[in-house]
Design a protein that fits this description.
The complex is a heterodimer.
Chain A lengths: L1 H28 L2 H19 L7 H34 L6 H4 L8 H6 L2 H12 L2 H12 L4 H8 L3 H18 L5
Chain B lengths: L2 H20 L3 H23 L2 H27 L11 H8 L1 H5 L1 H15 L1
The chains are: A mainly alpha, B mainly alpha.
Chain lengths: 181, 119
């Protein structure tokens, strides 16, 4: 009986958090497929390791797992870019093809795709341009609504670092979005 | 920027981000749903499987107990043709009564004579 209640609570928690988690991950990876895979991994990791923790701790712990997955993704991409990408580029024949090199006009980014506004596009671009830690501090603290201590748990850093990252993020975002205010 | 401006700006950004989550396409929502159910299924499988190690341990204990109980009795039963007769000499002698014990010296002398003549 208690297990059923716990299972239902977990389901509701994940359902409430999954869309924001996806958007945060999508802003970090700029890829919906990658973001979906990482969110799924984070759900598995969270359920496996932290489902028995108090419910009040679930949000920071889930985002901690997700942050780990995103950091792992960055590392893999860095290794790939350093060692594998030059070989892949050398093997490709269509480097000079302007059609292949052109940005994908059909995919203007999640916020514009979803909200369809110029301001949303600007916010999307400004968030993507932020360093990962600043973006996480902004999204976890001001969007997800975690307090400073919970954000520090999720980001595995001190509360002072959270405040510093958030302050820098706000400054950068305001500067980037001045024209859209 | 005043504090109220800052709060208004943050609220606006939050609203735009919320709006972006409300407009996710069906395929994405389906994948999120599948991911959530798959993650929860691992937990329920884990909960259901808690008794498996206990059952394995209980079965092993029962097997060991059965083996230990059976083995000494099997050893006691011994081979089909016993090395030692089930009825000892003393029991046979007991049938002869007190005379056997009174003539023990005679039997000992007889045995010694037989050994001398045999050796």
């Amino acid at each position: 009986m208690a297990d059923t209640t716990q299972q239902r609570a977990l389901d509701e928690f994940l359902k409430a958090i999954e869309r924001r988690a996806l958007r945060m991950t999508e802003l970090a990876t700029a890829s919906r497929d990658e973001a979906l895979d990482l969110v799924q991994d984070a759900m598995f990791g969270f359920v496996r390791h932290y489902a028995d923790k108090p419910q009040a701790d679930w949000a920071p712990l889930f985002y901690r797992v997700l942050d780990n997955r995103i950091n792992d993704w960055y590392r893999r991409r860095q290794v790939r870019n350093r060692w594998i990408a030059p070989f892949l580029r050398a093997a490709e024949d269509d480097d000079d093809d302007p059609i292949v090199q052109a940005p994908d006009a059909a995919d203007p980014g999640p916020l514009l795709r979803l909200a369809g506004s110029q301001a949303a596009l600007a916010l999307d671009g400004a968030l993507r341009a932020l360093p990962h830690r600043q973006r996480q501090a902004f999204l976890l603290r001001l969007w997800e609504g975690l307090d400073v201590a919970a954000t520090a748990v999720a980001m595995r850093c001190s509360q002072g670092s959270v405040k510093t990252h958030l302050s820098r993020a706000l400054t950068a975002l305001r500067r980037a979005l001045e024209d859209h205010q | 920027m005043t504090e109220s401006d800052r709060q208004a700006w943050v609220a606006d950004a939050r609203a735009r981000l919320d709006e972006s989550t409300q407009s996710l396409d069906a395929a994405t929502l389906s994948r999120l749903n599948q991911a959530r159910h798959a993650a929860l299924a691992t937990r329920s499988r884990g909960l259901r499987a808690w008794w498996l190690p206990a059952a394995g341990l209980a079965t092993s204990c029962a097997l060991v107990f059965a083996l230990v109980s059976w083995y000494p009795s099997a050893q006691r039963a011994g081979p089909a043709t016993p090395a030692h007769p089930a009825v000892s000499d003393a029991e046979i002698a007991a049938d002869d009564g007190i005379e056997f014990y009174q003539d023990l010296e005679f039997y000992a002398w007889l045995d010694a004579q037989e050994q001398e003549s045999g050796g």
